[in-house]
Amino acid sequence: MDNEDLKELNAIFKDMGGVEKVEDYTSNFEELPDGNYIGEIEKVSTKNSKSTGRPMLEIVVAIDEKRKEWVYLMLAGKDLKATQTAVARAVTQLKKLGVEGTELEDFINGALELTGTRVNLEIKTNGSYKNRDLTLA
Fold first, then answer.
1. Residue range 122-131: mean pLDDT, rounded
2. How would residue 56 be classed by pLDDT, with cut points 50, 70 and 90?
3. N or C: which end of the chain has fewer CB within 10 A?
4. Residues 40-46: contacts with CB within 8 Å, 24+ apart?
């Protein structure tokens, strides 16, 4: 990055309102209320949870150009029982999306091929937790 790039970026930052307004730009998508939505899987990736460091699948569902929802399927828990529960939930969710296999790796690889799939997204809030369920549309 040269000085011209930095000047241009500083101008953009200033137009955004600087430090006082920067948080207004961190999420350009509105939070979806409880309900059923038809969308398309925009991206599926494997990553580690920021909070726990444990592996998970991240599924990005685009409802329209301004609304997206992120669905996280954990692949490990804090102990063996929690890991078994996480894997069971992930595989159950992926089976609803037509992914098949006999090994966990089959389900993960199948999930990575879901980009472009039309889905029904059901959102239900239970206390402070937001449940997201995907099925084929």
1. 92
2. very high
3. N
4. 40/116, 40/117, 40/118, 40/119, 41/114, 41/115, 41/116, 41/117, 41/119, 42/68, 42/115, 43/115, 44/111, 44/112, 44/113, 44/114, 44/115, 45/112, 46/108, 46/112
In degrees and rounded to multiples of 5, residue 92 shows phi and psi of -60, -45
Long-range contacts of 8-11 (CB under 8 A, 24+ apart): none
Answer whether residue 87 shows pLDDT above 60: yes
**From residue 98, how far is each of 72, 95, 110, 118, 137 by CA, in Å?**
17, 5, 9, 12, 11
pLDDT of 77 reads 94
Q: Write down the pTM of the prediction.
A: 0.78
| Residue/partner pairs of 122-129 with CB below 8 Å, 24 or more apart | 122/35, 122/36, 122/37, 123/32, 123/33, 123/34, 123/35, 123/36, 123/37, 123/69, 124/34, 125/34
95-110 pLDDT tens trace: 999 999 999 999 999 9
Q: Determine the Cα–Cα distance for residues 34 and 79; give it in Å rounded to an integer.
A: 31
